[in-house]
Amino acid sequence: MNQFSEKLFSKTPIVGILRGYDKETVLSISRVFVNPGFTNLEVTKNSPNDYGIIEELVAEFEGKLNIGCGTILSIKDARKAIKVGASFIVTPIVEKKVIKYCVKKICLFFQELFHLQKFIMHGNGELKW
């Protein structure tokens, strides 16, 4: 497993999200992304060959990028992502098995929280589920 680097994350606490791109496009974008000092990249599960892309990114950018897998919906997805080297997981749902597995594997876990379609904005500026 590719270990998540707090040092890299702190350097540039922004996560680039690549959704739906093929391997060649992701690799090209990643090479440009890393040059100015960006350090955190997520490949979503709806990308063709998602796990293969993550595996290749880890081989090329280990130590330069935190590479994560997004849109994780099940323990099966989490296992595969961590197995190919994802150092963090992003999920739009709360799935206890996924959370426990990430903790066990010492893999950082992010919960997608702000899907605006799931929230209603109230007049007082308060967001409500």
Automatic annotation (TrEMBL):
UniProt xrefs under InterPro entries: Aldlse_KDPG_KHG (IPR000887), Aldolase_TIM (IPR013785)
Any single Pfam family the record assigns to this protein: Aldolase
Top-rank taxon: Bacteria
Gene3D superfamilies: Aldolase class I
This protein's pathway: Carbohydrate acid metabolism
Keywords associated with the record: Carbohydrate metabolism, Lyase
GO molecular function, one term: lyase activity
Coiled-coil region: none
Assembly notes: Homotrimer.
Family assignment from sequence similarity: Belongs to the KHG/KDPG aldolase family.
The protein's name in its UniProt record: Bifunctional 4-hydroxy-2-oxoglutarate aldolase/2-dehydro-3-deoxy-phosphogluconate aldolase
Naturally occurring in which organism (per UniProt): Aureibaculum marinum
Native organism taxonomy: Bacteria, Pseudomonadati, Bacteroidota, Flavobacteriia, Flavobacteriales
